[in-house]
Amino acid sequence: MLVILTCADFTSAVYPWVQQKDCLPSILARATNNQNKHIMKEEQKSLPKWILIVSGIFALLEIMVSFSLCFSPQSVMETVDLNAKGVDYIIYMWAVRQFALGFIFAFATFKKSIPMLTIAYIFFLVMFVGDFFIGILQKESSLIIAAVVMCIISSVLIYAINRKNNKQ
After folding, report:
1. Other residues' Cβ atoms within 10 Å of the Cβ of residue 40
2. Which residues lie closer than 8 Å to 96 by C-beta, 6 or more apart?
3. pLDDT (tens digit per residue) in 32-68
4. Residue 148 half-sphere exposure, CB side, CA atoms within 13 Å?
5. What is this structure's pTM?
6. Three-state SS across 86-135?
7. Cα–Cα distance, 119 to 105 (Å, whole number)
8. Which positions ≥6 away from 167 have C-beta within 8 Å?
9. How far, in Å, CA of 75 to CA of 93, rounded?
10. For the residues of 20-34, what is the DSSP string, one character each?
């Protein structure tokens, strides 16, 4: 014998204190109404244009670095023996990661998503903190300077994205 319970039957039988209007389908329907979608669109469009432009430039730069790693790795890594065993594997892994970061920046910029851009810039910040320590270990002052500058830029952008009064 098959028994089919409606939302009202189930909630009143299992949870007698829950009203029928609080069943899952009605909660989901209320959560996805047009008013909430309109509010989400307004929040997404509250980013200043300059942040979107800078984020788009970073997306393009990351994708360009990815392609240059794939097609011309000697232009990016002058001090590495490209004929050594396993180096091509590491180069392609690095290229894919650069492409992924560029794609994430591009997608977050296109969607004008504050949370996505925040996460992308936090990733950027962590990556450049790592570059800073690598520069110290390798005694490479150009990498240290570039990492400090990019850490500052990433931090400023994280702050600017998450300010309460974002105005265009």
Report:
1. 11
2. 66
3. 555 555 444 545 557 899 999 999 999 999 999 999 9
4. 7
5. 0.68
6. CHHHHHHHHHHHHHHHHHHHHHHHHHCCHHHHHHHHHHHHHHHHHHHHHH
7. 10
8. 46, 48
9. 17
10. GGGSHHHHHHHHTSH
